[in-house]
TrEMBL record:
Keywords: Disulfide bond, FAD, Flavoprotein, Oxidoreductase, Redox-active center. It holds the Pfam family Pyr_redox_2. PROSITE patterns: PYRIDINE_REDOX_1. The keyword Cell membrane does not apply. It comes from Smittium culicis. Belongs to the class-I pyridine nucleotide-disulfide oxidoreductase family. Gene3D superfamilies: FAD/NAD(P)-binding domain (3.50.50.60). This is Dihydrolipoyl dehydrogenase, mitochondrial. The keyword Flavoprotein applies. Residues 34-248 form the FAD/NAD(P)-binding domain. GO terms for molecular function: dihydrolipoyl dehydrogenase (NADH) activity; flavin adenine dinucleotide binding.
Amino acid sequence: MFSLSVSANKSAKALNISRPVSNLLRLYSSSAEYDTVVIGGGPGGYVAAIKAAQLGQKTACIEMRSTLGGTCLNVGCIPSKSLLNNSHFYHQAKHDFKSRGIELSDVKLNLDQMLSEKEKSVTGLTKGIEFLFKKNKVDWIKGKGTFVNSNQVDVALNDGKNSSIKAKNFIIATGSVPTEIPGFEIDESQIVTSTGALSLKKVPKKMIVIGAGVIGLELGSVWSRLGAEVTAIEFMPEVGAGMDAEIA
């Protein structure tokens, strides 16, 4: 029978691991307790977190992105509307102004500048949410959470550490991700999601949009206005099938 009878201090000293282990544990994990924790920092999540804090709850929001605002603000509604607006101006200047008595001799597309303006719009709004979090004392935990039980979430932090978060209440506002099509690898270069379609480096000659709903129509319109030949493919019997029937 093997018996280990030396003290913990002597064992640690002999192996020379006491300080590295204790440092590693401090780096690896931490813990905190809240009244309410929101998982997801998008439009549903950040609004709920701010409201909970305003009602007197000690509140945190777990978000794995490097910025708040979720899909809508970072790679959805806001950047899409920016490109829709500016591509409309370009299309008007190139194809419509002359008939209205406005003649421009040399209309050129500066795609890099248009994309830069899109990013400025996004950055301004994401910084605004950060300010509201600080103002209302909402803790932003940067990482990805996994439920351990009904009152605890373990968070893999973006900096490589771990954190254990306990709360009386959790609000799940994680949003969604694009559906992958079997046999087609999304590389965000040739086969792109809506995220990739917001940041193409050049205007493609031809583009096929799978899905003629709001997102597909918005991004298809952007690249069509900028010069691409766009074809939309839709499973439903009409374009914009999820919208009001008369509008569709």
